[in-house]
């Protein structure tokens, strides 16, 4: 009888390599081939980086278009993005475009009269009084009656913000703001008497007292001011700031150099609205003015509200008047907020300054709180001429 076939011994079956395993086994490369592969990948990466930087260099080398000046909306007037066109070309463009938005209502600044003579026929320009980032100011004389004036010339290249008139013309925002706060019944702000569009830009004609000094020069001739004199001048600056706020204007550069003192009458006038803006309830993300007067919220967060920042600058101004120097000189000093007073400064004056220079903007007073402070209720000597001379 035939013997049965022997069964294979039990055990795990032999694993046959699957196609993937066979492929991976066969894909084992020699060191030479691995080096070739990584070399090609590195070359591809370096080529991509070189193409990127070459394209960036070509883009930076090309001349960039000049940014259009920003415009600020004015009460009852329309804003426009285009820069002003010279003379008749702008008027023709306005006629072709028809009525611009906001033309039905009144404008904050009256348009220049076409029949008005040029600047040289109405005013005689004198020597330079001072210059800054916004323009140069010259002494002048009105030829009609010999009245002293100040002529500020603003170059068109220096104008960063514009305002549109109802006839479609664009003027510097400074001109519009100055006209908004210039009222015959209020003497705390320098009045804008006239303005002209000249080939290089604009000329602003303002009033100029006969015998006057800016408050910085007036202060440093005396090293510091007594509290009665400082109280009278500071109260006038507060009146000017309140007037500007009522007209919807934020000055943004309140400092001793921008306060003009009439030596004959003791009157103080707020000048130079080149850093000003339209007053708004929302935050500002652009700072204009003097760094030593910047509030801490601008340094820490890059934004600020108009009224608390104004109160901060008023506190800096009052400290400078009674102490003879600025309280802070660097950003670190401002953020630290440490104040040191000489013994001659009264406790009430120190309290007012510390209140204005509160690190938290919500803890600072408003303008009406300042007027009601006990230190400002005391008598002042700003109107006495004898106190106005060193």
List the defining traits of the structure above.
Transferase(Phosphotransferase), domain 1; three-stranded mixed β-sheet; single chain; 34% helix; 390 residues; alpha+beta; five-stranded antiparallel β-sheet; globular
Description:
- The strands form four sheets. Strands 2-3-4-8-7 form a five-stranded antiparallel β-sheet. A three-stranded mixed β-sheet has the order 1-5-6.
- The chain folds into two domains: 70-75 and 117-208, 2-Layer Sandwich (Phosphorylase Kinase, domain 1); 212-388, Orthogonal Bundle (Transferase(Phosphotransferase), domain 1), CATH 1.10.510.10.
- It has helices at residues 19-26, 31-61, 87-97, 119-122, 173-181, 215-220, 227-246, 296-301, 306-323, 331-336, 347-356, 367-371; strands spanning 70-71, 123-131, 136-142, 148-155, 161-164, 170-172, 192-198, 201-207, 212-214, 249-250, 259-262, 268-270, 277-278.
- The relative contact order is 0.09.
- The protein has 390 residues and is α+β, with helices and mostly antiparallel strands.
């Amino acid at each position: 009888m035939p013997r049965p076939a022997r069964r294979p011994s039990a055990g795990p079956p032999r694993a046959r390599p699957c196609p993937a395993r066979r492929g991976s086994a066969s894909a084992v490369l020699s060191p030479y081939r691995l080096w070739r592969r990584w070399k090609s990948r590195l070359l591809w990466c370096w080529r991509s980086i070189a193409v990127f930087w070459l394209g960036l260099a070509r883009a930076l080398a090309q001349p960039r278009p000049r940014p259009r000046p920003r415009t600020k909306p004015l009460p009852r007037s329309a804003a426009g993005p285009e820069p002003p066109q010279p003379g008749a070309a702008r008027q023709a463009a306005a006629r072709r475009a028809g009525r611009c938005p906001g033309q039905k209502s009144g404008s904050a600044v009256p348009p220049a009269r076409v029949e008005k003579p040029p600047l040289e026929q109405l005013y005689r320009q004198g020597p330079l009084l001072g210059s800054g980032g916004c323009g140069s100011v010259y002494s002048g004389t009105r030829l009609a009656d010999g009245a002293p004036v100040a002529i500020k010339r603003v170059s068109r290249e220096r104008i960063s913000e514009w305002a549109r008139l109802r006839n479609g013309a664009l003027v510097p925002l400074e001109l519009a703001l100055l006209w908004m706060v210039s009222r015959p019944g209020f003497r705390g702000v320098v009045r804008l008497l006239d303005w002209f569009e000249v080939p290089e830009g604009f000329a602003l004609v303002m009033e100029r007292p006969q015998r006057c000094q800016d408050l910085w020069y007036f202060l440093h001739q005396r090293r510091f001011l007594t509290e009665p004199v400082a109280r009278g001048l500071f109260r006038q600056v507060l009146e000017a700031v309140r007037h500007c706020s009522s007209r919807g204007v934020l000055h943004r550069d309140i400092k001793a150099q921008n306060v003009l003192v009439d030596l004959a009458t003791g009157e103080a006038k707020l000048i130079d609205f080149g850093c000003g803006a339209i007053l708004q309830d929302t935050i500002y993300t652009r700072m204009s003015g003097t760094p030593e007067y910047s509030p801490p919220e601008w340094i820490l967060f890059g934004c600020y509200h108009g009224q608390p920042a104004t109160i901060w600058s008023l506190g800096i101004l009052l400290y400078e008047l009674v102490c003879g120097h600025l309280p802070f000189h660097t950003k670190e000093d401002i953020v630290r907020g440490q104040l040191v007073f000489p013994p001659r400064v009264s406790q009430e004056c120190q309290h007012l300054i510390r209140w204005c220079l509160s690190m938290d903007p919500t803890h600072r007073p408003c303008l009406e709180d300042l007027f009601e402070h006990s230190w400002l209720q005391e008598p002042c000597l700003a109107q006495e001429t004898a106190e106005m001379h060193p």
